[in-house]
Each structure stands twice: as C-alpha cells, then as structure tokens.
C-alpha cells in the first residue's frame, strides 16, 4: 500500500478482556486477548472503510508484537512506520466488562506502565515521506507520559505542520498510564493547542474545560477547526465548520464497547477524506458526517473486541439505509 491519507501514531497492544462480565476482578477466572490500542484501532477501521491509512508505533520483538503487525498487514494498513524494540515487551492491558458491555481498565499484569515497547518510539526514525503524502495525523495522550514517545509525538506534530497535515487529537484520558497524574493536564492542554480537531468524552470535557459544550470549547481554544464531545449511549455533540448540534446514539444490542470511539473517529475522518474539510461549513454536511461516524461506532459495539468488530463501508451504508430518522437514502 502506498501514500496513506491518514497516519495514526501511538499505541498498539492486546486488550485482555474478562470472560466473565459483571463480576469483580477476584472472581474473573479467564481472559480473552483482543488486538487494540486506540491509534491502531483507528488505522484498521479507516482501512476497512476504504481510506488508505498508516500506523506509526513501537512493538516488542515478541510473538505478541509480530501477531499485531501481521494483523495490520492483513487488513491492509501501511506498516512502514512501525519500529521494533529488542527487549521491551508488547503491551497487554487487562479489562473488566460490565453486564452492559462497558469497560474498566484495571492494569498491566505484573509490569509497570513504563515497561512496554510502545514507550520507546524514536523520533529520528519517523518516516518523513509518509507525512508528505498524508492529509491527517491522529494522535492521543496515552503515550505522553513517556519521554521517548513524547518526543516522537512532538516531532510528528512538527512534521504535520511542515507538510500541511491536519491533526486530530483523541484525548482518550487513561489515568493508569500516567505515573504522575497531576502532570497530565498541562501536557494535554498543550497538545490540544497544536491540534485542528479534538474529540473528547463527556468526562474528559468536564475535566479539561468544566463544560461539555463543544461550541464553548472551540471558542476557548481559538485555533481549532472542530470539537466533538461524545456521551456514550446518549450520543454526541459537535461544533464543526461553525455548525453546532447534538446527535442521539443508535439503539443497539451492545456486546462490547471496546473500540467504539475509535471506529467513530475513523468514520469521521473517512468522511472528511471523501468530502473535504471545507464541506463541513454546510450544516447538512456536518450532520451527515456525524451520523456516519455515529453509525461506525454503534456497529462496533455489537461484537467483542475492537478491530474484529469494525464495519466495512458497505455495512455502514446498509445500516444507515435502514435507519429512521437517520436514513441517508
């Protein structure tokens, strides 16, 4: 695959989901591992929708890392930006599930959060040629506590600016990744100032801005082109191209919410790649883009795991054709 239009930089890992939903940790008797990590999830979801995408990150030279890279290559994600660490292992994260499919991240087994390969991404090894051809760069905050990968993210933002690549930040706040939680907010706030589009959960918006109103957040940041706030089963609110609105979620039989937000981001970027950012100025276009993104997220909740559950473009279009009042016929 050549010339990815979207680059997703950050973590790729194994989500170890409890096989017994709705029980406390001490009652879990077995776990099932699913490939994950928000940027990797977005890369796979975009590729499945038909937008050429590349993943940039670091994995261990272990079976877990090789399996993840094999999966990306099988799906069709460009892997030229992947680095390999000779000693640090590929990350595993353990996840409890509620009866309704919601997740609770509980830890990394017997390892410290800084022990894994994804914390060692090298700035000097980022493939500059990928940025020359890309339209969007997707980053998150999970890797910001780790000095080496933080420098790589900073360099990726410099490359994005040099090559006129728009930056989407999915805040994806996970306190368990931060050895010093108090240090997180100023780091994240600085990252937001370097971004063009920002996606936050309701909780993240309250934490960072004391409001969930995307129009207010857009005004405060001043330089962003769009802000999206997600409310889980209650839908989302957005300010895109100067258009502000709210959108309810689709009612689904939820199996697992893992990766739903990442599929949502992928759906959003897929539509921007098809229609262009300028089209968002039309209210009906902004709404259509958000309906599509919402459908991508909703369909991902109907199966376990993040990547395996992601829909194709044909599945999204078929789903939307049958929906009312959302139908895009």
Description:
This protein has 329 residues and is α/β, with parallel strands linked by helices. It has a single domain (6-322), classed as UDP-N-acetylmuramoyl-L-alanine:D-glutamate ligase. Helices cover 36% and strands 22% of the residues. The protein is built from ten helices and 13 strands. It has helices at 38-49, 63-75, 128-133, 147-162, 184-193, 202-209, 214-221, 260-275, 283-300, 313-322; strands at 6-9, 13-18, 31-36, 53-60, 78-85, 92-97, 103-107, 136-139, 166-170, 197-201, 226-230, 236-240, 243-247. A nine-stranded mixed sheet has the order 5-4-1-8-9-10-11-12-13, sandwiched between helices. Helix 4 (147-162) links the parallel strand 8 (136-139) and strand 9. Helix 1 packs across helix 8 (260-275), helix 8 (260-275) packs antiparallel against helix 9 (283-300) and helix 9 packs across helix 10. The longest helix has 18 residues, at 283-300. The protein is globular. The chain starts with 5 loop residues before the first strand and ends in a 7-residue tail after the last helix.
Task: Provide the descriptors you would attach to this structure in a database record.
329 residues, UDP-N-acetylmuramoyl-L-alanine:D-glutamate ligase, alpha/beta, nine-stranded mixed beta sheet
Strand-helix topology:
Elements: E1 6-9, E2 13-18, E3 31-36, H1 38-49, E4 53-60, H2 63-75, E5 78-85, E6 92-97, E7 103-107, H3 128-133, E8 136-139, H4 147-162, E9 166-170, H5 184-193, E10 197-201, H6 202-209, H7 214-221, E11 226-230, E12 236-240, E13 243-247, H8 260-275, H9 283-300, H10 313-322
Parallel strand pairs: 1-4, 1-8, 2-6, 4-5, 8-9, 9-10, 10-11
Antiparallel strand pairs: 2-3, 6-7, 11-12, 12-13
């Amino acid at each position: 695959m050549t010339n990815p239009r979207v680059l997703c930089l950050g973590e790729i890992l194994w989500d170890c989901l409890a096989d017994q939903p709705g029980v406390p940790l001490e009652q879990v008797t077995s776990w099932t591992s699913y490939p994950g990590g928000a940027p990797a999830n977005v890369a796979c979801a975009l590729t499945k929708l038909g937008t050429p995408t590349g993943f940039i990150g670091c994995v261990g030279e272990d079976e877990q890392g090789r399996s993840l890279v094999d999966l990306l290559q099988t799906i069709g994600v460009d892997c030229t930006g992947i680095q390999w660490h000779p000693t640090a292992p590929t990350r595993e994260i353990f996840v409890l599930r509620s009866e309704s499919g919601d997740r609770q991240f509980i830890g990394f087994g017997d390892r410290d959060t800084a022990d894994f390969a994804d914390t060692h991404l090298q700035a000097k090894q980022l493939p500059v040629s990928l940025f020359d051809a890309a339209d969007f760069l997707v980053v998150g905050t999970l890797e910001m506590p780790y000095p080496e990968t933080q420098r790589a993210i900073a360099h990726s933002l410099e490359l994005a600016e040099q090559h006129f690549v728009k930056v989407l930040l999915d805040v994806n706040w996970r306190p368990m990744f931060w050895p010093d939680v108090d240090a997180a907010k100023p780091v994240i706030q600085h990252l937001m100032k370097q971004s063009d589009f920002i996606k936050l959960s309701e909780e993240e918006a309250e934490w960072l801005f004391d409001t969930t109103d995307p129009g207010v957040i857009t005004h405060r940041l001043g330089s962003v082109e769009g802000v999206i706030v997600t409310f889980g089963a209650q839908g989302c609110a957005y300010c895109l191209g100067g258009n502000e609105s709210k959108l309810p979620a689709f009612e689904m039989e939820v199996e697992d919410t893992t990766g739903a937000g990442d599929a949502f981001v992928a759906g959003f970027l897929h539509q921007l790649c098809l229609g262009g950012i300028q089209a968002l100025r039309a209210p009906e276009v902004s709404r259509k883009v958000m309906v599509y993104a919402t459908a991508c997220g909703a369909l991902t909740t109907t199966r376990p795991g993040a990547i395996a559950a992601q829909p194709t473009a044909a599945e999204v279009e078929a789903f939307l054709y049958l929906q009312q009042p959302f139908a895009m016929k």
